[in-house]
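Deliverable D4.2, example record:
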Amino acid sequence: ALVSKGTKVALVYPYPRAKENIGKLAFEELSNANPADLTSLRKHVETLRAATAYETSEFMFYSKEAFELLDGIKSENIIRIYPHHLFCDNKTCNFLSDNSLHVVDYNHPSSFFASRFAELIKVEVDKKGW
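Output generated by the structure prediction step:
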């Protein structure tokens, strides 16, 4: 109904949901790190990254219906936003990048992710010339 009236619409596709509370895990894991020891800190960050990551194929499998539904909506007044690209490469979805969390619990965006997500939207809006 919106696009038929000429309204410009951004379709936001799914992004991964963490299997565990990322914020809680980060707090617990990093509480054990010695902030003065960079090697120790990196080890704890990598432990957290490994504990929370999962395969991109798993995410794509459980998101398949949502992707198909959104892909079926056709209009020149639509841009498509794929936030999972901020989490996932061809192999793995991670909830940590550049030593920042993407979500603060299971799926609520961190300020880091929110700013990257806003940049992603801006790029797509600019491509469309809106």
